[in-house]
Design goal:
Blueprint (H helix, E strand, L loop, with lengths): L3 E15 L6 E16 L3 E5 L6 H8 L7 E6 L2 E3 L10 E2 L1 H7 E4 L13 H11 L4 H14 L4 H4 L9 H13 L5 E5 L7 H18 L2 E5 L3 H7 L2 E6 L2 E7 H6 L4 H8 L40 H5 L5 E2 L6 E2 L15
Parallel strand pairs: 3-9, 3-10, 5-6, 7-8, 8-9
Antiparallel strand pairs: 1-2, 1-4, 4-5, 10-11, 11-13, 12-13
Length: 338
């Protein structure tokens, strides 16, 4: 396996709810709670889960668009921090981090400045980071070509003059303008027509090879995640419940939530038609999640230990497949907990 480019340990973000007496907090939303994972250089890590599981918040925490409450993020061996002058040989500042880690958002229109043309949007980042204006403009034209847009007709167009797919191509080009090593894609194709989304997915695959990129791909579309990812991380209510190689995880999911999630995938095969709901009930309130395992209130195999103890994300095999479940079978055939 390639070296680790990004290491996340115990990343936590709780959002306080205001509105109590004299403006006091009424509790906290546990959006991301002690999440740990690695991203290896050159791979695509897919992150899946229901709405509200913490996928997008995790991505924003990685680039410090939101400041975490606790936890550590290490990029290429350097700890992410606001004060690079302290232990400069082991710390990376936010300015350098955001040059090497870029993000593409779901809403292609609101991600662009309506007052800037396509070329100006792409050239803005390199210009701010010290590149001469003419060189930044030239790089913008090169990237427009790279994402499949002819600079002649498209360089001077504004966001309202572009289609959704064209705008997302501009956002991808803008993300690549600073020559990043890691790109976070937060529902980058979910707002697009399926045929246009497929074109953008193919473009992302080509760009990954051409520019030697590493991706973190966040999506609710399990088929898309399977198509583009090397490994998949499954989140539920702010926690990581399973992570592993994409084909292994889709073929032999171990966590009950992962199995339920995959069973809900649409299929064109009549013999694989879902006849009953894989899960019952709604996800618990993130303000007051269940004790122990957060999935236990919807889990068909939950036991007493699931309410008493929170399951740790533990290696299931020697191939990097890890599961957070007391009841999952170990390779020896014994259960982790009674």
């Amino acid at each position: 396996m390639s070296p680790r480019l990004l290491t996340v340990r115990d990343l936590t973000k709780h959002f306080p709810l205001k509105g109590g007496l004299l403006g006091t907090s009424r509790g906290v939303v546990q959006a991301v709670d002690r999440v740990s994972f690695d991203v290896h250089e050159g791979e695509t890590l897919g992150i899946v889960g229901e709405s509200g599981c913490g996928k997008s918040t995790t991505a924003r925490l990685l680039v410090r668009l939101i400041e975490p409450d606790s936890g550590e993020v290490t990029f290429d061996g350097a700890t992410v921090g606001r004060r690079p002058s302290e232990n400069a040989h082991t710390t990376i500042g936010l300015r350098e981090l955001r040059r090497q880690v870029q993000m593409v958002f779901q809403d292609s229109y609101s991600s662009l400045n309506p007052r800037l043309s396509a070329a100006a949007s792409i050239a803005y980042g390199p210009f701010v980071h010290g590149m001469a204006r003419a060189a930044a403009r030239e790089r913008a034209h090169e990237l427009l070509q790279a994402v499949g847009l002819d600079p002649g007709p498209f360089a001077n167009r504004y966001p309202h003059e572009l289609s959704g797919g064209q705008r997302q191509r501009i956002n991808i080009a803008r993300a690549l303008a600073l020559e990043p090593r890691l790109v976070l894609l937060d529902e980058a194709v979910s707002a697009l027509d399926k045929s246009i989304g497929a074109q953008v997915l193919n473009l992302l695959a080509d760009l990954k090879e051409r520019f030697h990129l590493t991706y973190v791909f966040i999506s609710h579309d399990l088929n898309v995640v399977r198509h583009i990812s090397d490994r998949v991380m499954v989140m539920y209510l702010g926690k990581v419940v399973e992570i592993g190689d994409v084909e292994t995880l889709y073929r032999e999911p171990q966590h009950p939530y992962t199995r339920a999630l995959l069973s809900a995938m649409p299929s064109m095969d009549p013999s694989r038609r879902t006849l009953e709901a894989p899960l019952s009930g709604d996800p618990p309130n993130p303000i007051n999640p269940p004790s122990g395992c957060r999935f236990r209130t919807r889990c068909p195999i939950a036991g007493d230990v699931c309410a008493r103890e929170e399951p740790a994300l533990t290696a299931f095999d020697n191939a990097g497949h890890a599961v957070a479940c007391h009841k999952v079978l170990l390779p020896s055939g014994s259960r982790r907990a009674a």
